[in-house]
Structures are given as structure tokens and as C-alpha cells.
Specification:
With about 250 residues, this protein is an alpha+beta fold. It is built from 6 helices and 10 strands; from the N terminus they run αββββαβββαβααββα. The protein folds into 2 domains: about 1-170, Nucleoside Triphosphate Pyrophosphohydrolase, CATH 3.90.79; about 185-250, Winged helix-like DNA-binding domain superfamily/Winged helix DNA-binding domain (Arc Repressor Mutant, subunit A). Strands 1, 2, 3, 4, 5, 6 and 7 form a 7-stranded mixed sheet that branches.
């Protein structure tokens, strides 16, 4: 079965190669690090190619008739089925021979074998609104906890690490949460999100004081029912203040 998968992938790549040369900008690709939050764990979408033992990040190419951001949005939708996902360009990756080993046995004329400079985007997606899509080149597309990641293909581990570092740095001066939490959430749930991103525990009292000082939350006249202890208050983001903070920034690191 593994040999059949290899033949299928080779045939598909060769079949799509001429079409790719005609439709896409040469030497330019996009790799997306798509984060979400589920069961107190920060997760990322990973894809397994048909004939590889390694996993990679969702990606694709820039068409000749579209802007780079438009290409990233299209690639995201093709993998998640979702629209209006928070998307941020964060770095460019262009090391020599970054994909050489993957395609070394393919002909030099193959579209995928050329040297690519990849533009990295990270995205923040609502777990409940994502419908993972397996394309013709892959056998799996799954959410993986960042605490238990498989082996990466090519330089995708470097891309992932840079995206996570960027997200952690952004947490120091921009609000995070609107795209990752449900519309109504508790303060402990928001704290768990911050802890999952930062990879460390935060003092409860200090977190509450600091996040409330940002003045981006609205306390609702509701509480989370069903627990054994006192029902925690529910909050939502004040979108006007949240979006203003995205533009103007926040002060103070975690």
C-alpha cells in the first residue's frame, strides 16, 4: 500500500506540475501555522503527505492573479472550510535546499523541485468552526497538541517555532482570545489560554488584575452553571476596545 501511495503522489505531482508553472508565481510559497484552543491545550493543524513519514504545515502557492494575503486566505479556507480567520504574516523562510531531500528523486522540471522562498502566516481559529479537509496530496489533516507534536518535514519545525515565538511576543502587547475562545467564557478559561500559549503557569490574582486593567472585557450578568464549586462569572470581549487594542497595543509583558 505504501508503494502505491508513492506512485499516486508522484503521478499527481507530475500531472499538476505544468498547470502550476502556468498559474502560480515561481519560487514563492506560503506556509500557515493555524492555532486553536481545545481542552486547555493549544493546538496546531498538521498534514501528512502520502509517501512521507513526516508531518508538515498546511501550505500552497501564490497565483499570478492574486495578492499574497489573498493566497493565504484561500489556502486557509481550503484546509479549514472556515472564513474570517485572524491571519498575520510573521516571517520569511528561504534557506538554500530547504526542500531538496523531499524531491531529490524527481525530475528537475517538476514545479515542486524549484527553490522556494516561503512566507509564513499564523492564524487563530475557533476549533468548533473548523472542518479539516484532506487534499489529493495528503493522507491526514489533524489537530495536534503543541505539547505532543510528530516529526516535521523540511524546515517546518523552524517555521512552527518562529510562529509560536511570535504569538508569545504578541501576547505581551496585543490582546489574544477573541478568535480562540467561545463568545462567553470564564476568567479561568482565559487564563488557561494564556498559560497554554506562554507554556507556563500564571499567578491567578496577578492575571485577573492585569487583564481587567486592559479594559477589553465585559462582565456579563451570567455565570457558568454545573460545577461543584461556586459558578464563575462569564465574560465577553468588548470588540470595540479589543480592536482598538489590536491597533494601538497594550503595555506590560507576561
Amino acid at each position: 500500500m505504501k508503494q502505491i501511495n508513492k506512485m499516486e503522489l508522484k503521478k499527481i505531482l507530475e500531472m499538476r506540475s505544468e498547470e502550476s508553472w502556468q498559474e502560480n508565481l515561481p519560487s514563492l510559497s506560503i506556509d500557515c501555522v493555524i492555532f486553536s484552543f481545545k481542552d486547555s491545550s493549544l493546538r496546531v493543524i498538521m498534514v501528512k503527505m502520502k509517501d512521507l513519514d513526516f508531518w508538515g504545515l498546511p501550505g500552497g502557492y501564490v497565483r499570478k492573479d492574486e495578492n499574497i494575503d489573498e493566497a493565504a486566505i484561500r489556502i486557509l479556507k481550503n484546509r479549514t472550510g472556515a472564513e474570517n480567520i485572524y491571519l498575520q504574516q510573521f516571517y520569511t523562510f528561504g534557506n538554500l535546499n530547504r526542500s531538496e531531500k523531499v524531491f531529490e528523486k524527481y525530475p528537475d522540471t517538476l514545479w515542486n523541485k524549484q527553490r522556494f522562498v516561503s512566507i509564513g502566516y499564523y492564524a487563530l481559529a475557533d476549533f468548533s468552526k473548523v472542518d479539516l479537509i484532506i487534499d489529493e496530496f495528503s493522507t491526514a489533516c489533524e489537530w495536534k497538541s503543541i505539547d505532543d507534536l510528530p516529526d516535521f518535514m523540511m524546515d517546518h519545525k523552524i517555521i512552527f517555532d518562529k510562529a509560536l515565538l511570535t504569538l508569545r511576543e504578541q501576547l505581551n502587547n496585543h490582546p489574544i482570545g477573541y478568535n480562540l475562545l467561545p463568545e462567553k467564557f470564564t476568567m479561568p478559561e482565559l487564563q488557561k489560554l494564556y498559560e497554554a500559549i506562554l507554556g507556563k503557569k500564571l499567578n491567578r490574582g496577578n492575571f485577573y488584575r492585569k487583564i481587567l486593567r486592559y479594559d477589553i472585557l465585559t462582565k456579563l450578568d451570567e455565570s457558568r452553571k454545573g460545577g461543584a464549586h461556586k459558578a464563575p462569572d462569564l465574560y465577553s470581549f468588548d470588540l470595540e476596545k479589543y480592536n482598538a487594542a489590536l491597533k494601538e497595543g497594550l503595555k506590560g509583558s507576561w
